[in-house]
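ingest -> fold -> write
write: protein_1
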Amino acid sequence: MSESNSSRSPKLNKMRRQPQQARSQERVKQILDVAEQLFVELGYESTTTRAIAARAGVSVGSLYQFFPDKEAILKALAVQYMQTQYQRFLDLHTPAAVHLPLRSYVDQMIDVFDQFYTDYPGSKAIFEQLLNTITWSKIEQIDDFEYQLIDELARFFQARKSSLSMTKCEQMAMIIIKTTTELLWLSLSSDQALRQDLVTETKLLTWSYLQQYLD
């Protein structure tokens, strides 16, 4: 079902140059980690590249070697998050997963996305800032990650039930991805009790829908 990450991950990170040496890679990681902290603490508009460089312990010139501007840093952070989220989704689809009871698979799938936001609490602020500060025409390629999720899920559905056409599996996958991501995103703005209720209801909704086709 899954192709290698190197062949499927979209090239969205518009860095000025890609770090090759371990030292450069560590410098980029430090810049991104610090930028994430400042974007969450101060907000995107109030954060400057000079402030990022100062806290990261690098010169502004060193920062510009890798990122042409603050927008490129924000995009790189968002892409980093999406790549992590996508990899977790791929890891869920082991050969044994095809034979799991449908309810168990649905629970695991929703938990993968919900756990991501628990493990990376800054991701919500980064995604919100990305959508609020950059025009859609500049970030439309980020949809590629969602299309990859849909494509992977459709292949998984067909592996579970080969009598379903790929067209139908893609339609089902689109409905599931669109619905679950919106509901889980909504849950992040709720208190813990309501968030858990929304996660539970999302699982029930997903399972009830897929039962019609996969059981």
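write: protein_2
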Amino acid sequence: AGKTTLLLMLASLLAPDSGSIRIGGIDPEADPLAARRVLGWMPDALGAWPSLTARETIVTTARLYGIDRPDAERRAQHLLGLVGLGELADSAAKVLSRGQKQKLGLARALVHDPQVLLLDEPASGLDPEARVQLRVLLRRFAAEGRTVLISSHVLSELEEVVDDAVFLVGGAVVDAAPAQSAVRAWRVRLAGATPAR
């Protein structure tokens, strides 16, 4: 469909063949460093340094953004707790599960406190509880005034978190409309309970 390709162009990692992109007035092709200062990029698969711990991954990323070591250490502690990896802070990235790597990828995307988050399949590999936690976090980020752009092919993962949706086919927009929350009827059945009369 072109979802990841679009995110790569927004993140200044791929040049568009034609047209132009602006993020808050910044052209990511002409000024990639300015774009990267305002963007947090979470790819579908974490390109982590496998020998580094989760904490070292966040600290190293923060240092690459010019954050001094004491602030980078504090930021790592905060972000790992935020995404639910506090207890795994000193575990090597190579031993983390797919879902834990997704959480580490989100923490890494947040390291420089970006105003725009680009998330490619952020719920991939997460268990149901972690998916709920992710939805809560993403709604919180939006409430804080951040722009959160999520790419996913699993629409059921998005319906409780999105405000607007854009559908791509072959790199072209085929539909763009405000997301509508579907009202669902739920039936709860208790094991061993007898029906009330």
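write: annotation protein_2
Helices lie at 3-10, 32-38, 54-64, 69-82, 98-109, 128-143, 155-158.
The chain has one domain: 38-178.
pipeline exit 0
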